Amino acid sequence: MKAVLMAGGFGTRIQPLTQSVPKPMVPLVNRPMMEHIVVWLREAGITEIVVLLYYMPEVIQEYFGDGSRFGVNLTYVLPDDDYGTAGAVKCAERHLDSTFLLCSGDVVTDFDLAAILAFHRTRHAPVTITLTSVPDPLQFGVVITDAEGRILRFLEKPGWGEVFSDTVNTGIYVLEPEVFQRIPPGRAFDFSKDLFPTYLRDDVAIYGCKAEGYWRDVGDTDSYREALRDLLAGKVSLGFPGTRHATEDGTLWVEPGAAPLPADLTVQGCAVVGSGARLGPGVVLDHAVIGPGARVGAGAHLSQTTLWSGVEVGAGAVLHNVVLCDGVQVGDGVRMEKGAVVAEGTEVGDRARFEKDLLVWPDKRVEADSVLSANLVWGDKWKKSVFEGGAVHGRTNVELSPEFSAKLGAALGSTLPRDSHILVGRDYLKASRMLKRAFLGGILSTGVNVHDVKMLPVPVMRYKLTSFGEVAGVYFQQSPTESRGAQVVFYDGDGNVIDSGLEKAIERLFFKENFRRVDHSEVGAIQELQATTQFYREGYLRALDVLALQGRRYRVVLDLGNGTTGEYLPPLLNTLGCETVVLNTYPDERRLMRRMHETRDALQRVSQIVSALNADVGFYLTPGGQNLYVVDDRGRVFSGHDTLLCTLKLLAAAKPLGARVFLPVTAPHALERVEPSLRITRGKSSGLKTSAMHDMDLIAEADGKYAYPVFLHGADAMFAAAKLLELLARQECPLGEVYDGLPAFAYRRRQLACAVERKGLAMRRMSEDSVDKEASFIDGVQVEIEGCSVLLLPDPHGPLLHLVVEGPEPAVVNGLAATYEAKVQLWIGS
Fold first, then answer.
1. What sign for the dihedral angle of Cα 734, 739, 740, 741?
2. Please, what's the largest Cα pairwise distance for the chain?
């Protein structure tokens, strides 16, 4: 039997450990991770191994050679492009004419291979996927099987809202050669995203084998350190190099060629000393690995720490939870007591102190006696993932510095066609202007041109993107969550927030700094667009029933939140015949930075003015012009759900044959029970390609975000305000009357604290608890019970679960909320 090792990945997430070596060659207890896998395969009787290479192939080939040194025979295959997991294996098809095992070369495991292979033989199926349970399933494929192991459903690398189990795909497969018939040659094709779904679609059984033992995907620096800790703690059976020596408080493994050890060496737990390493007197090793040729000075204390080859640690240094890569030099008295990963070639001066767990990238210099409180990367701040939901967030001049912004521009530009155009806009903050100008330098250097629309609301820029001329858009604005922070939002050429695929493409270039640099004569140009406002205005009015609105002459109170909509919405409403009282129209940078904390107070002021003036409606718009909040003619401040339900009721009346609406799963179901004509589609509110929803009458993305594709598929509070007035005009009734006609319903939403590593477990238990109920897995796990809806939704970013219960009877809703909160607390062990 043969095995295939996937060893071609870039290792982007585990940087800076992979700056000069491919991920499979990152050392684990003085041996490359891939060597541990090769030995694991050999001990299971598999000696014929095909190795798939792509990134830095020469490093792996030089170390392993033909494999004879390790008791195996290695055959190397180098695909000529990045074809994905299945596409890469397709390139090795001629070497694989019988059952074969597929595994990654950069995992740590001691699974019983014999048991996995035996399981496969008894199922007589083309595919067996090895499964295990993990605390955090976000980075893996979640899998559901029946009692016999037949796979019923799986989802590759889900968001928290899609997690319905903590049982995941380990990437260890047993495959029959017939799988190649389903893999197209010469194009990107993935096992979990592309190949395996074809079997489910064709109702061909494939199986999952739940393996016992240790497994860890070493995906980032934290996971790498955890794998090291587990190895030294004996949680995984991989074996240690060298000769074993028992000590008073632990076990020491010494490799051949190590210098004589000092008599007063203290070993606690497990420690490994590599060939050529030298330790000074009084050294303490507490679960530590000393790499080949490393030097540790007198009295140094190393705990949960790994030194790679050629590292030097000075006398009296104290290191905890630290990884020092090849050639790092750490001076006397240095203290890294809260963790650190220090990349190759870095020098840390005497008595320097690291104040927290930090990442230091290659060839940096930390001066003597300095206090390091921030990561040292290329610029100022390292983040494991640059993007969060299509946007980059950070504190101005801390995480989001001009250097960072310039590199971001170069990374985006490198993904786009040369001589193409992008659209760039901003709000009026000085910080937004600064970051935008730095970004422009980066994007222009790649040969991409810029259409600069300067200061304008977000919807106006997105509306321009829906026309023609640009392949992407970027908007710089005040952070919605951090008063001293900024946000950079990326859009595709259709005005959608970019998807995770483009995020990862930009991140890969950003971290590798593999930017396209064009010739002096090919640098991009900047063109200022002048007609964008008029273009938006004309489209806005075309999409509304102007005569109906002008006939009503609505009295409207507007609070524009000192944002960018002041030059747009008031003139448009005046054209529609509205009498407007406008608050906070003009730019005010200090007030804008406080606005995120003042929405509730602002709505109360609008309410008071509506009541005092007998106005028909009040609107509050967030500064970017995307979120709309409403006050009715009686001064009642609407929740987001109130506004949505009133809008749906008006749409149902305006389109009796059926209005088409997209709603997030968290939106109330109340109106669906009394307005059956509504044709409602529910789905995730993140990652939407709203440009493809042109047949929808309304898209509600999140609280206060409404889009009408007849005009713009993205959230536009300015248009949503006018559209609500138009719907009221058609029905010839005040907003308060519409609200009074809504069906009674109770809605409870609770945030439950849950450690990140327990979220997957909670979702699996919710899924198992829902087996005998009507359940939906669109976003989280949602069940129908006692005429109510119960939704458990993992927070995509923080250690939280969202419990949403909705139904017609408050007492029943409250009871179910209490019941399920107690269940969740039991499941997660709180």
1. positive
2. 96
The helix, strand and coil proportions of the chain, stated in percent and rounded to the nearest 5, come to: 30, 30, 40
- Which conformational region is residue 734 in: left (phi greater than 0), alpha (psi within -120 to 50 degrees), or beta? beta
Instruction: Tell me the Cα Rg of the chain.
Output: 30
pTM of the complete model:
0.67
Q: Which amino acid is at 609?
A: I
Q: Which of 132-146, 334-348, 399-413 shows the lowest per-residue confidence on average (mean pLDDT)?
A: 132-146
Whole-Å CA distances, 649 to 262, 279, 740 = 82, 77, 11
Distance CA 249, CA 244 (A): 14
What are the residues facing 258 on neighbouring strands? none
DSSP for 581-596 reads: EEES-S--HHHHHHGG
Strand 485-492 and strand 391-395: pairing? antiparallel
Answer whether 359's CB lies under 8 Å from 372's CB: no
Residue 433 burial (CB < 10 Å; 0-12/13-18/19+)?
Answer: middle
Contact yes or no for 115/165 (Cβ under 8 A): no
β-pair type (698-702, 705-707):
antiparallel
Let me know: does 142 contact 154? Beta carbons within 8 Å: yes
Which tokens hold the place of 106?
């950069």
**If DSSP states are collapsed to H, E and C, what string results for 769-799?**
HCCCCEEECCCCEEEEECCEEEEEEECCCCC
Whole-Å CA distances, 299 to 279, 376, 721, 805: 9, 28, 70, 59
Is 540 within 8 Å of 722 (Cβ atoms)? yes
pLDDT tens-digit series, residues 17-44: 888 889 999 999 999 999 999 999 999 9
- The tokens for 724 are 């609500």
The arithmetic mean of pLDDT across residues 558-574, rounded, is: 95
Distance CA 287, CA 437 (A): 49
How many CB atoms neighbour CB 249 within 10 A? 10
- Type and span of the H or E element at 499: none
Cα separation, 225 vs 285, in Å, equals 16
Q: In this predicted structure, what is the pLDDT of residue 141?
A: 73
- Cα(350)–Cα(369) distance, rounded to whole angstroms? 6
Angle at 382 between CA 378 and CA 386, to 5 degrees: 110
Distance CA 564, CA 621 (A): 10
The DSSP call for residue 259 is P
DSSP 498: P
Q: Which contacts qualify for 178-181: CB closer than 8 Å, 24 or more apart? A: 178/126, 179/86, 179/126, 179/127, 180/90, 180/93, 180/96
pLDDT score, position 688:
77
What does the block give as tokens for 719?
């248009």
Among candidate residues 781, 788, 784, the one with its CA nearest the CA of residue 809: 788
Q: Which long-range contacts (CB under 8 A, 24 or more apart) does 260-266 make?
A: none
Q: Given this model, what pLDDT does residue 366 score?
A: 87
- For residue 458, give the nearest of 476, 480, 443 by alpha carbon: 476
Structure tokens at 363: 């060839």
What pLDDT, on the 0 to 100 scale, is given for residue 669? 87
For residues 715 and 729, give the distance between their C-alpha atoms in angstroms, rounded to a whole number. Answer: 22
pLDDT digits (tens, 9 = 90+) for 792-817: 999 877 789 999 999 999 999 999 99
CA distance 25 to 21: 6
Residues 6+ apart with CB under 8 A from 46: 1, 2, 3, 72, 101, 113
Confidence of residue 594 (pLDDT cuts 50, 70, 90): low
C-alpha 487/C-alpha 480 separation (Å) is 8
Alpha carbon distance 290, 254 (integer Å): 10
Tens-place pLDDT, residues 155-201: 766 666 666 777 889 999 999 999 999 999 989 899 988 999 999 99
User: What is the number of residues in the chain?
Assistant: 830
* Residues 458/561, Cβ–Cβ less than 8 Å: no
d(CA 540, CA 571) in angstroms, rounded, equals: 12
Confidence (pLDDT) at 100: 97
